[in-house]
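pasting input
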Amino acid sequence: MLTIASLKKGQRAIIKHFSVEVIPLKLLEMGCLPGNEVALVQTAPFQDPLYLNINGSHLAIRKETAAQIEIELL
Amino acid sequence: MARQINVALIGNPNTGKTSVFNRLTGLNQQVGNYPGITVEKKQGVCKLDRGLKAHIIDLPGTYSLNASSLDENVVIELLLNKNDKDFPDVAVVVADVENLKRNLLLFTQIKDLGIPTILAINMADRMKRKAISLDVQALENSLETKIALLSSRKNQGFNELKELITNYNLLSNKPCVNASSIAPEYFDRLRKAFPNQDLYKLWLVITQDVNFGKLDRQELQGVGSFQTESKSTLKRLQQKETIARYQFINNILKKTLTIDSANAKDFQSRLDRILMHKIWGYVIFFGILLLIFQAIFDWSSYPMDFIDSTFASLSEWIKNIMPPGDFTNLIAEGIIPGLGGIVIFIPQIAFLFLFISILEESGYMSRVVFLMDRIMRRFGLSGKSVVPLVAGTACAIPAIMATRNIESWKERLITILVTPFTTCSARLPVYLIIISLVIPDRDVLGIFSLRGLTLMFMYLLGFGAAIISAYLLDKFMKIKSKTFFVVEMPHYKVPMLKNVGITVVEKTKSFVVGAGKIILAISIILWVLASYGPGNFNRAESIVTAENPTLSGEELETEIASYKLEHSYIGIIGHGIEPAVRPLGYDWKIGIAIVSSFAAREVFVGTLATIYSVGSEEEETIMNRMAAETNPVLGGPLFNFASGVSLLLFYAFAMQCMSTLAIVKKETNSWKWPMWQLTVMSAIAYVVALAAYQLLK
């Protein structure tokens, strides 16, 4: 199963699915929704957190959250 | 009389909402707090055409109406309460042209509340460079609103916005998204239970933890039964609502907005690559911190010397022109030196806020959060703890409030507990004066001043103490809480002079006024305690003359003055606590200054200034008086290397701020944590200062 955590720098993907229980509403409101595009812009030192471009918004989340969001590569 | 309307400025963080506010109101604004809570309330007045005046409220930045913090609660409580005197006649939603999609989410929510809503698209001057084109007319039609294209930087579009506000009653207040479509059956039940209420408002009340006492409580009786729907059902519905809103927005933007993504590799990603580099990123961050501390110490010394000597001559001038007596003495020896002790630090505090507001305005602070998260997590903190820890160098109170956006309760609590270790601006006066007294004015490696480096070391010590105690707390505290972290990386912006200027003026003013009141009160109390005394105090002249028959003139006067001080009320109290502070290398006067510092640390310098000026006849600067003090037991200067270091360390660790304790109580909702801070921090301070003095003396 591919998740955002397995993206490589510069790779783009489409968000497929995640469980509502683990992903907070705030992240959804910032554009992290199934069907939207996500790209890994950069990782911080030690590969965590991840700097993403989701649906045109630039935001950073931790790897453990990213590992909960399933994707399909573009 | 001019008619006044209420205008609410609402928007996501990082949309330049505050710049729009500053442009609309100029300096015609006031900053206060919402009653009962510590969220900043900014309001101002803007003149419109046709004799209309707009009372503008700058609401805290929020991503949506689903409140997850006190700041966001302020927004939703105001918008749900028609009876609030600030309830907006019209809402202006400020959006960033580069993040229009996300910003419109909030717009649709506000509009669905039935409030006339204007969309203000800010940073429109960047459209050309970013190859963004927008069909404003079509967007206005599909959102059923009016749009103002703004550029706060170039001061464009504000007349149009004012015009739109003036004509607010022409705006449609039809909702954008029909909330009930997300769960028709559920909303049907709601409608039946509360036939007279607006459904979307009801929905917000049910899903938020806001205090809905301000809505008509009677009509909402029974709302609880709808809240009993399981939390995850409600959350799923909120998710559906968010998706529905984004669908609506996507459909509209597809027809009205085009972005040429060929320009995507832009300035931001290039700058990010350097500023967030795994080595250079940290080097640059450290360099910026070093620059800040050099500036605070070196650049501000010129205005400080000027202020110090001005207050000294002011005292003298008062003594010369006013008739001698108690009242003149109170002003010249109590109030003026006390106030001088606070005014002198304005340059430094202004510099500190200048740098902090530049870092925040430019978008760099979020990069620091990103860079530091992994490291901070090892100590039980979050990358977001960096902001409170850096803001704590100004003042722990706003810093502790800034922890609200840390999502995990454990990380947040730890941040709150350790933030008071960071070197706040109230410690700065103490550090500066002690450093100038005991550290030689020398250069290291030709460029750094030894004093500047010492100051930087004190800041690092504060951070170090914060981080180490965070690590220990993380190990020993048994709180399970979900960790979660999301931070927006805003576009880089050249900070706007006006915004930075207003922040510096506002913060410095509130520091001076807030601290000034306490200091003034304490100066007067101290002066009274130092100028009166029982028994021998009143016979000072005859006793001293009898004991020193050979003395005369000025020497006799000085001897009498110091005898009086020793036997005044403050002298008696001071001698009472002296045994506790002598092992740390202090005399009773410093003891008094430390005790009064528990009201607020910056009182230290003012207190010593007041005590010393009562004890001497000469008008002198604070610095010279302190340098002239001698140790009563060992002889030699009282402020020597050992006692100076001991004092520095004591102030670095001790919890001496009543306002911080109060805010911690408020934020953690219990006296347990502030009391913990008071005892643990002060105990550490005493032990460390004791060890330092005993080793160095």
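fyi The first helix of chain A runs from residue 25 to 29.
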